[in-house]
RNA sequence: GGGGACGUGGUGCAGUUGGUUAGCAUGCCGGUCUGUCACACCGGUGGCCGCGAGUUCGAGUCUCGUCGUCCCCGCCA
C-alpha cells in the first residue's frame, strides 16, 4: 500500500475520497465498539476510525498499539458536527478505515512520544530517533532546514559560491584545543579537525573566488555548555574587495531575509551598533542584552570631595564610581537579597556593593545614608529616578568595576526580571586586537591572528603598547547571545608578520605554522573580510530554546558523549597498533 | 580543573528524625463501554531505591568513593 496523502493535509474538501495514509499510531481510543486511532507522520495527525461493522478489520485494529508503523486505506468523511475539532488542522475529518497494513509493530517506547516534556533529557538523547518523532522536536529540525535553505537562497542570489573545505586539516596553535586525528600512513603525525575554515576561506580569496560561503561544521575540544557543543555549524562567509561596512550590510540583509522567511518576524535593518568600548562602559559586557536598559553611569561628580573616605580615597587612587539603576526592583530587593548580591560583587573582585533605594512612596534609603545623605540627595535631584527603583553601585578600577557591574546586571536579568520580548540585534565593533593571557603570561589574539588591526592604532602602539590596538572586528549579538563574529582580514604579508611577532611567534615558527598563508600573500592577495554566524545559536533563538541541543538532530551531552551511539568508545588493539598508538593507564 | 543540583517500577515524581508490607501519577495487561480526542470506569502487573564500600541491631534515608545527566565558573564560539 503506497500513500496517497500525508497526515497533515486532508480537510473536508477531500470528503468522499478514497485515500491511503502511512504513519505511526500516536494514540488509540477504544470505546468498546468504535475505535479511534490517531495517525502521525511528519506533516501532522489524522484520525482514523475503525467501525465494528467491519468485524475482521476491527478485530485487526484492536491489536494496534502506539508507535506501530502502519498504512491505512479508507474514505475521508466529515466528522459529526459535535465531534469536529476546529483547533486541529485535520480536525474536521476522519478516515473510515477499509484496510489496514502493519509495516512494523512496536514495543512500548521508553520515552513518551505523544506527551511533551514527560521524559528526562538523557533518555530522550539515548532514544533520539524516537524523540525526533515528537512534533516539537521535529519542528525545530525542520525550522533549521528552512533557515539554512533561506541562507543558501539569499547567498546564491547574491552571487556567492558554496565551496567545501577539508575536515582533515592542520593543527594550528591559536584559539581552542584541536580535535586530533592520527594518521595511519604517516605514523606519529596528526590531522586536526577545523575549528573553522578560516585559513581556507582566506586562501579562496587569494584564488579569486570573491564571494564564498559554506554551511560548515566546526570542531573545538573544549568544555561544553548549553550553548556549546564539540561540533557546531557556522554559516561561513568571506568576500573580497570589501570593508567592514560591506560585510555588516550583507549580514544584515542575510539575517533579515532568513529570519523573515523562517519565522515571519519582521527584522528592521540596519541593526544598532556599539563599539566594544561603549558596550563595556554602558553594560559591562561585550554581548549585552540591551532590551533591559540598566545602563551604567559615572557617579563620580556627586562624590567629589566627599567626606566618606571609602569613596573619596578610591577617587584619589584614580578609581571610578559607577552604578546602574533598576526600575521596579526597590521593593523586591530585601536586605537578604542585597547581601547576596554584595557577596557576588566580592567574588567578582569588588570591595563591596553600595545601594540606593527610591521606594514606592518616594522615601530614599541607602547603605551609605549615614555618610553621604547630601551626595545622594544631589544625585537624585540631577538624575530622574522613578519610584520603586534600585541603584547598585561600587568603586574600583575601570575594567574590574564595569565588568562586575555587568555581571550583576546579567544576574538581575536572569533572576529578577520577566524575560523581554522581541529580538534585539546589536553589532559590537572595534574589539581590542590583543589581550593578555594571565595563565600563559603572554599576549594572545582576541579574535584570531588574521584580523586586520586598526592601522592608525597599529602604527602608534605596535611596539609600545599593543593592548591598545583596536581590531577591525565585529560581533553580532542577539538578546545577549553572541551569534556571529567576523573581521576584516590581513592581506599583507608585512602586517601579518608583525602581528605574529607581537603574539610571540618568531619568523621560523610562523613559517612552520602558517607558512602557506604567508606564502599565499606573496602572490597578489586581495583585501578581504568575512563573518561567520553560528547556526545552532541562531536556531535556538528562533525556536525559543535555551540549549542548542534542541536544534541539533543528534547532539552530545555535557561530557561530550553521544548517548545513542555510545561515542566516544574504546577501539581495538589492532586499530591502535595500526596507528602506532598506546593507551597509557590513567592510574598506574 | 572547580562549584552546585539530580539519580527510587517502563516513564515522571513523593518518601518525615535511620525503623516493619517503598507511595502517587502515567504507561503496560485484562475487563465494561459505538463519537472519543490526555476518552471514562473497574481490576491487575511492575522496584536489589545508579554502582561499590562503610557507620548501625537496622540504610532509599547518614558517610566516603565511583559512574551518569543537567546548570554554572575557568576554558571556549
Description:
By secondary structure, the chain is α+β, with helices and mostly antiparallel strands. It folds into three domains: 12-104, OB fold (Dihydrolipoamide Acetyltransferase, E2P) (Beta Barrel); 139-274 and 427-551, Bira Bifunctional Protein, Domain 2 (BirA Bifunctional Protein, domain 2); 290-419, GAD-like domain (Gyrase A, domain 2, 2-Layer Sandwich), CATH 3.30.1360.30. Helix content is 30%, strand content 24%. The protein is built from 16 helices and 22 strands. It has helices spanning 55-61, 121-126, 128-131, 135-157, 198-207, 244-263, 276-283, 309-316, 335-347, 369-382, 398-416, 455-461, 493-502, 507-520, 535-543, 573-579, and strands at residues 18-30, 35-41, 44-50, 69-78, 93-104, 161-162, 180-182, 190-192, 211-219, 231-240, 272-275, 297-298, 320-327, 354-358, 364-366, 389-396, 425-429, 434-437, 442-445, 473-478, 481-488, 528-533. An eight-stranded mixed beta sheet has the order 6-9-10-22-21-20-17-11, sandwiched between helices. Strand 2 and strand 3 form a beta hairpin. Helix 4 packs across helix 6. The longest helix is centred in the first third of the chain and has 23 residues, at 135-157. It is globular, with a radius of gyration of 30 Å. The termini are far apart. The model has no long low-confidence stretch (mean pLDDT 93). The protein binds one RNA strand of 77 nucleotides through strand 1, strand 2, helix 2 and strand 21.
Amino acid at each position: 500500500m503506497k500513500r496517497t496523502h500525508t497526515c497533515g493535509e486532508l480537510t473536508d474538501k477531500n470528503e468522499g475520497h478514497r485515500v491511503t495514509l502511512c504513519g505511526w499510531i500516536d494514540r488509540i481510543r477504544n470505546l468498546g465498539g468504535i475505535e479511534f486511532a490517531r495517525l502521525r507522520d511528519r506533516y501532522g495527525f489524522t484520525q482514523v476510525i475503525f467501525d465494528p461493522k467491519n468485524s475482521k478489520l476491527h478485530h485487526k485494529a484492536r491489536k494496534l498499539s502506539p508507535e506501530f508503523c502502519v498504512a491505512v486505506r479508507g474514505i475521508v468523511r466529515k466528522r459529526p458536527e459535535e465531534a469536529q475539532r476546529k483547533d486541529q488542522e485535520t480536525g474536521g475529518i476522519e478516515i473510515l478505515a477499509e484496510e489496514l497494513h502493519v509495516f512494523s509493530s512496536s514495543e512500548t517506547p521508553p520515552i513518551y512520544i505523544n506527551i511533551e516534556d514527560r521524559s528526562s533529557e538523557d533518555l530522550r538523547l539515548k532514544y533520539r530517533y524516537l524523540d525526533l518523532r515528537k512534533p516539537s522536536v521535529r519542528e525545530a529540525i525542520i525550522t533549521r532546514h528552512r533557515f539554512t535553505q533561506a541562507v543558501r537562497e539569499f547567498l546564491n542570489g547574491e552571487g556567492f559560491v558554496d565551496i567545501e573545505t577539508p575536515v582533515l586539516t592542520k593543527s594550528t596553535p591559536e584559539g581552542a584545543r584541536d580535535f586530533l586525528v592520527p594518521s595511519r600512513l604517516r605514523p606519529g603525525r596528526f590531522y586536526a579537525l577545523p575549528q573553522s575554515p578560516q585559513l581556507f576561506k582566506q586562501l579562496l580569496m587569494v584564488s579569486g573566488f570573491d564571494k564564498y560561503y559554506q554551511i560548515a561544521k566546526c570542531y573545538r575540544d573544549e568544555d561544553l555548555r548549553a550553548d556549546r557543543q564539540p561540533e557546531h555549524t557556522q554559516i561561513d562567509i568571506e568576500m573580497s574587495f570589501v570593508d567592514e561596512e560591506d560585510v555588516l550590510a550583507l549580514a544584515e540583509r542575510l539575517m533579515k531575509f532568513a529570519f523573515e522567511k523562517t519565522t515571519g518576524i519582521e527584522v528592521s535593518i540596519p541593526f544598532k551598533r556599539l563599539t566594544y568600548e561603549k558596550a563595556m562602559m554602558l553594560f559591562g559586557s561585550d554581548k549585552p542584552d540591551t532590551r533591559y536598559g540598566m545602563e551604567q553611569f559615572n557617579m563620580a561628580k556627586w562624590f567629589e570631595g566627599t567626606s566618606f573616605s571609602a569613596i573619596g580615597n578610591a577617587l584619589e587612587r584614580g578609581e571610578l564610581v559607577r552604578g546602574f539603576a533598576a526600575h521596579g526592583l526597590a521593593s523586591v530587593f530585601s536586605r537578604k537579597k542585597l547581601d547576596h548580591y554584595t557577596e557576588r560583587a566580592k567574588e567578582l573582585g569588588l570591595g563591596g556593593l553600595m545601594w540606593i533605594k527610591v521606594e514606592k512612596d518616594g522615601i530614599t534609603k541607602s547603605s551609605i545614608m549615614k555618610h553621604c545623605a547630601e551626595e545622594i540627595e544631589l544625585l537624585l535631584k540631577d538624575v530622574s529616578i522613578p519610584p520603586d527603583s534600585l541603584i547598585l553601585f561600587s568603586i574600583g578600577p575601570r575594567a574590574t568595576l564595569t565588568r562586575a557591574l555587568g555581571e550583576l546586571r546579567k544576574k538581575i536579568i536572569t533572576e529578577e526580571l520577566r524575560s523581554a520580548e522581541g529580538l534585539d540585534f546589536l553589532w559590537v565593533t572595534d574589539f581590542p586586537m590583543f589581550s593578555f593571557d594571565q595563565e600563559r603570561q603572554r599576549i594572545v589574539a582576541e579574535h584570531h591572528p588574521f584580523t586586520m588591526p586598526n592601522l592608525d592604532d597599529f602604527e602608534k602602539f605596535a611596539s609600545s603598547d599593543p593592548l591598545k590596538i583596536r581590531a577591525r572586528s565585529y560581533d553580532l549579538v542577539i538578546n545577549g547571545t553572541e551569534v556571529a563574529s567576523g573581521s576584516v582580514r590581513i592581506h599583507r604579508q608585512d602586517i601579518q608578520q608583525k602581528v605574529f611577532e607581537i603574539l610571540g611567534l618568531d619568523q621560523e615558527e610562523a613559517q612552520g605554522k602558517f607558512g602557506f598563508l604567508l606564502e599565499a600573500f606573496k602572490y597578489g592577495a586581495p583585501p578581504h573580510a568575512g563573518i561567520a554566524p553560528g547556526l545552532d545559536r541562531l536556531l535556538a533563538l528562533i525556536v525559543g530554546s535555551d540549549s542548542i541541543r534542541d536544534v541539533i538532530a543528534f547532539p552530545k551531552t555535557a561530557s561530550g558523549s553521544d548517548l545513542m551511539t555510545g561515542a566516544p568508545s574504546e577501539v581495538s588493539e589492532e586499530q591502535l597498533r595500526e596507528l602506532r598508538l598506546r593507551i597509557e593507564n590513567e592510574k598506574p
